[in-house]
Amino acid sequence: MPTEPDPDAAAAVQELLGGRFGEMSTLMNYTYQSFNFRGRNKVKPYYDLIANIAAEEFGHIELVAAVINGMLTGATDGDDIHQSPLKSYKGIGNPHHFINTGLGALAGNSLGQGWNGEYVFNSGDLVLDLLHNFFLENGARMAKIRVYEMTDHPIARQMLGYLFVRGGVHALAYAKALEELTGVDVKKMLPIPAVPDSAFKEAQPFTDQGLHGKLYRFSPEDFKDLGAIWHGEHPIDGTPLEVEDGPPEGGQQWDPPEEKAVSSPGLNPEELQEMAQRLLRNV
Amino acid sequence: MPTEPDPDAAAAVQELLGGRFGEMSTLMNYTYQSFNFRGRNKVKPYYDLIANIAAEEFGHIELVAAVINGMLTGATDGDDIHQSPLKSYKGIGNPHHFINTGLGALAGNSLGQGWNGEYVFNSGDLVLDLLHNFFLENGARMAKIRVYEMTDHPIARQMLGYLFVRGGVHALAYAKALEELTGVDVKKMLPIPAVPDSAFKEAQPFTDQGLHGKLYRFSPEDFKDLGAIWHGEHPIDGTPLEVEDGPPEGGQQWDPPEEKAVSSPGLNPEELQEMAQRLLRNV
Amino acid sequence: MPTEPDPDAAAAVQELLGGRFGEMSTLMNYTYQSFNFRGRNKVKPYYDLIANIAAEEFGHIELVAAVINGMLTGATDGDDIHQSPLKSYKGIGNPHHFINTGLGALAGNSLGQGWNGEYVFNSGDLVLDLLHNFFLENGARMAKIRVYEMTDHPIARQMLGYLFVRGGVHALAYAKALEELTGVDVKKMLPIPAVPDSAFKEAQPFTDQGLHGKLYRFSPEDFKDLGAIWHGEHPIDGTPLEVEDGPPEGGQQWDPPEEKAVSSPGLNPEELQEMAQRLLRNV
Amino acid sequence: MPTEPDPDAAAAVQELLGGRFGEMSTLMNYTYQSFNFRGRNKVKPYYDLIANIAAEEFGHIELVAAVINGMLTGATDGDDIHQSPLKSYKGIGNPHHFINTGLGALAGNSLGQGWNGEYVFNSGDLVLDLLHNFFLENGARMAKIRVYEMTDHPIARQMLGYLFVRGGVHALAYAKALEELTGVDVKKMLPIPAVPDSAFKEAQPFTDQGLHGKLYRFSPEDFKDLGAIWHGEHPIDGTPLEVEDGPPEGGQQWDPPEEKAVSSPGLNPEELQEMAQRLLRNV
Amino acid sequence: MPTEPDPDAAAAVQELLGGRFGEMSTLMNYTYQSFNFRGRNKVKPYYDLIANIAAEEFGHIELVAAVINGMLTGATDGDDIHQSPLKSYKGIGNPHHFINTGLGALAGNSLGQGWNGEYVFNSGDLVLDLLHNFFLENGARMAKIRVYEMTDHPIARQMLGYLFVRGGVHALAYAKALEELTGVDVKKMLPIPAVPDSAFKEAQPFTDQGLHGKLYRFSPEDFKDLGAIWHGEHPIDGTPLEVEDGPPEGGQQWDPPEEKAVSSPGLNPEELQEMAQRLLRNV
Amino acid sequence: MPTEPDPDAAAAVQELLGGRFGEMSTLMNYTYQSFNFRGRNKVKPYYDLIANIAAEEFGHIELVAAVINGMLTGATDGDDIHQSPLKSYKGIGNPHHFINTGLGALAGNSLGQGWNGEYVFNSGDLVLDLLHNFFLENGARMAKIRVYEMTDHPIARQMLGYLFVRGGVHALAYAKALEELTGVDVKKMLPIPAVPDSAFKEAQPFTDQGLHGKLYRFSPEDFKDLGAIWHGEHPIDGTPLEVEDGPPEGGQQWDPPEEKAVSSPGLNPEELQEMAQRLLRNV
What we know:
Six copies of one chain form a homohexamer. The first copy, chain A, is mostly helical. Helices cover 46% and strands 3% of the residues of chain A.
């Protein structure tokens, strides 16, 4: 994933991780809604839907965090502490990326404010909570578009292409759930704002693979009733809506490179590695 | 899980979910440390340890949230809105449990303040982060003891018994990791405070099952190197320290009962269920 | 408005003033959306609608604040400072009502946290902002219902009856605006939660007066185009939807009684009055 | 109002809107003080003064918000989303202006922190509250001077010229009220800091019109007793202090231009307009 | 200092420690104003005054913290952890006193919110900063009166008696400084609110000792010029205003008793003491 | 101390004053731990140690504040308000340095967030609190290293050299205290991160003076038992560990120069000085 560092863009991407409409918010809204879902057995498809999307969101915070790591990698001028290797980044981006992390992602937004548990909405009333989730997904889409307009950093753009498509699935899923409950054809409002995913060339590869029509079933044992809501055709291009067992195929795990200047993961990684090797004889 | 409602105790238990030393904090500290771990392949046992404990912590937020739901269940006087079914709970516990949730858990602490992403510590330096984690686990243990002293609600106590034991495993694991890296026998400090788990009768059943010696490997594919750190004997009773493949056996899933007074999950759950049944014909 | 003081209920009512779904939030969301409305002349009915509802919300913060004042009036034991006239209120309600105000309303929520400008949502995209407003009104309705269930204090209940009806008008207005823009019959979702206003006996007098069908035009000069959106019939009872020039007839201004114990408005109001009289000779 | 965009200056101007000493603070302090004013009929001139100034402050938040909109207008490079039209603004100004608004004003300060209800001071004691207000107006003046020194953007400067004069009226009014109550000639301290309004050339036009001597009576019915406090001569130039019925003559309403790049008010404003026209046939 | 525990009152007293108008605020306002005082040598008496009062305020946070410790001492039911020794305090006072401290003072207010550095006002302009300080002292006095009315706990009352007198000195000192700079006889406003210190019987002993006329010179070397401001007579009773070298005679140091239930300072203090004795052989 | 102004670096240095790991945090953690220390007479060396280090930390906040003042001095373009003397600093550093202070230090961090009382950890359990303090000192060291890497401003570097050494003393002192209590040789972990103080050339002069082996006894009367913990040899270079009576010799007091552009300390300092001279005739 090696690319040019861009701390200013990385600071902006934080909004998509720890902002009110970032992935921490979608993750935790759906997680707490599933934890607190009363009478879930009676309306199991709705429970399954929310709990299952929560599971996918965990992968999204991992993805955005990896991208931020990638955008910060290399944001030092050499490794010699005395040569002020962070000096040219003074006043650039989020100072906490440099001071409080080893060029890593923060659980906060583009202003550096921490993600807050008060961002979770969970009234207990299913219609209201679904309406919230539908709004949240659309608000999140807006934030992503704005960050898209702010940077063309290649790994940010690739991530955004993927998230436009997956976020679109979640918005549609909540719309269909609302429709089942209330009879209102909410999905007709989509996309909000009125620029289709197909307008983003980075979304194309994922649409080509049909990802906009798939809901992954993260726990095949538990979430059996997703298909009760997720079926029919995609309102834009008629792609059949299908539930696929198992999580999406993960990309290859990325190991963010060491950054000696900020002693991440420690000033003498060779020494650490030697220790690790010694340890591994115990396995 | 039906028990007497106790909103005051439920408000206190929130500290263990969304307080600075609650399970949201352990979960998110280890999660972000694993996301941002640079050079992880060189020191894989440490990465595996942190990422694997993060995985277990997710189960802990679920557990604490379920207990809070249980402690709030029934905290209404009938279902008739006009009869002010929440009136006797005015001034009791956390008002947001009643106003902002349908008697569910909040992502906040015992004062009602939201959990904050600034609680995450992740300097990038492995020794410093492990020292933090060791401190965090001990701070978390203190908070649990204080809440234990504040309530003898049976489901809170059962949860605490379990968490004392599992938290003890995590504290010991970080101590051993620190010891490998620095040569300092940190585990000799344990337990902090100096009251052993065995002093809590509710921890006994779990210790009897040997849970204090087991590290669960949540992803057998990924976290192969845990044994490099987690081996030897438990410093207190000599129980062999073992890695067990797979997550702990979950308890039976609990479906928190409906609460009509707060329209959770909706004022007419029968109607909702009918819809759900109709939906399920689609599966 | 003299009634029994009830500081615990007053603390709960604060949620409806300064909580995320309180009147400060509806006021400021619509206010900032109107301030920042770009291209307003091209889509004037929408601008008029948002700006006009903002104007009504100002009256709502005044109303809720008056009710809180009323619920706190008399919450002292005599006026003698040495006799600890607030002692029986220690641990009751929100301490800031006593310490930081003279038994008056705070710009904060039921936990005592200040209302925050971050509660304002204003993406600029009209569809998204209207969707937010529709959600906000419904979330606000939920909060009102929960507070209704928490207290039967007569002035709180009267206020709630009125706000159910007016909030219902706003929810419907945003639903109709959304419908015009997107073709989606959003109003079919109402009411959320699924308990109609008619279920609240305190709402009855206001429905009887037809207030659920009226949109007040606060600035007859400026907001001429409200009727483009607000017309037709009420979806529940068929009441014709009408725009009425001018604000609603205000209730009689209420002068909250002095509270000597908290020197509000000063320890010697007689002396103050004398000064005031002297001043008035200048008018 | 078309001018060069200057997002860095717009971010600074936010301090005057949502900072502790911004117009949201003056507005809400006086608003809550009037809402909570106990025994107001006995000391009506004071009540009238505070409530009346609150009314004027509403116009001030509108003004500052309009200026921020003006300073952000045009802060995009074209409208093509794929061309990253916000890229050159990455790291410039407040990212939330771009991500969370459609180039509009935020209810927050120059650091992006939301305005907070805890900024309201309202002890209930009239002397103390007036002393606070006197201090607040002077603190607000200092903030304005500092922002004046930070930007010579023409619309910011024009706004500042106006606000210096009107803020000066409010400071003087509170000084006179304090003097009536306590006999202390507080107005002798003015101006704070010791640079007169006349030093700001942008204030001159407004002083020339005598605005520094006028108190507008926003509600001629309600606030009849303003003259009991606001009379005599201006301490600096002897201008007679007069109450004028009615609000100040507003400037021409400004319609901030559309910004397609941020879909404000929507990606296809022409389409929106067509809808609006259709709607208007209903009026 | 052994007295009855009163956690509800202790929670209220926190406002005087960590609230916006608490001793942390007076301490830190004057401390930062002295740190940032530019050109201090030219106007040394003012610098001396602010820096010297800052020094006294440090003693005040110590005093309030000691009182809170005293009011919490004994707030447990025995020492046996299994007997839930904190159970009867569930829902009483501030839960963080029990969970996050060992029955000690928090750096926060009566709502449990942390003291915040944003409470510091320091414009740099001497007149404005002094005006702020004068206001702050009067706001602090109001908070103290309200807490006085809320509790008659003997150690709280004794503390309040002392702080009324010393706070009065500080308010007067800032008034005199303002008067010297501006010619305005600000001290004529005092006391605010208009109830004299002599009305509080607990203040009497300190007034009898003449403490209301004394300014302690905390650093006789540094703060030589205090007398330039602090001289003349007390406006209420004519007591001569005098600077006294050295800090006020401290009360006897109090050692808050151990609380085994919350392991403060540790579960086995005898063991700790043995260690301490062993250590002392090294001295 | 006149140097080139560098507001961007000054904003970063704020992290070391008001950040979670800044000097405000070390000061207030140890201060509150000493205030709340129960049973202190039984374990007096530990009490003495914590209280004594608290005293030294006060000097550190003064030092960091002075450095920030120095780095901001001169950050204006002339003194003429009309010439926008702050214009070239728009978008540079922390806007509150310019708007809310007269180029002075804030009680906040590098993001401009206020220091918060919730940063204080004080469980009451001595081992846990000491473990926290040991962690805190190492976290603080990491923050200092990162700021060191971010700026080579001469006064920042000099300050950092000094603070590395004194922070090292505190970390070692807490390590030794923990070792006495638990038998664990914690100091063997030091330094964290694994770059020794000797690697920082600016620390050299202070190490040469032996400051890394000295604990200053701030109150010779009170803190007699420090030697029980602080004795033996420095683990790195064998320097004898000694307690020295009295505080460190202070540097010469620095008077930060006036900044007319921001009216600090007032627009006409000559006039102020004249007043001051007049005042001094009273001394």
